[in-house]
Design brief:
Blueprint (H helix, E strand, L loop, with lengths): L16 H6 L7 E8 L2 E7 L8 E4 L5 E4 L9 H11 L1
Antiparallel strand pairs: 1-2, 3-4
């Protein structure tokens, strides 16, 4: 399918509805853009695998504790800081 798109003043391109529908594209989809040569580009949809995240849950004794994702080796300090900033 050949189509024309126009670059907006913000540097954005919009994919026509026919293309979005044909490939089941959604607003949050991630793409890789590669410059092949002068004026030639390759746009490729990336498959993003959702990452399991730790959760803040109440323990049997009533305390709030971090529950690691299944098969997680350990909870990192960065994960704790991120969860604290989202929770508090």
């Amino acid at each position: 399918m050949n189509t024309t798109v126009t670059l907006s003043s913000k540097g954005q391109l919009s994919l026509p509805k026919e293309l979005r529908d044909a490939d089941d594209l959604e607003a949050s989809d991630v793409f890789r853009l590669e410059r092949i040569g002068p004026g030639k580009y390759l746009l490729e949809r990336m498959m993003v695998v959702p990452q399991a995240r730790a959760k803040l849950v109440r323990s049997r004794d009533g305390f709030m504790v971090f529950q690691p994702p299944k098969n997680a080796l350990r909870i990192t300090t960065e994960m704790v800081k991120k969860l604290e900033s989202e929770t508090i």
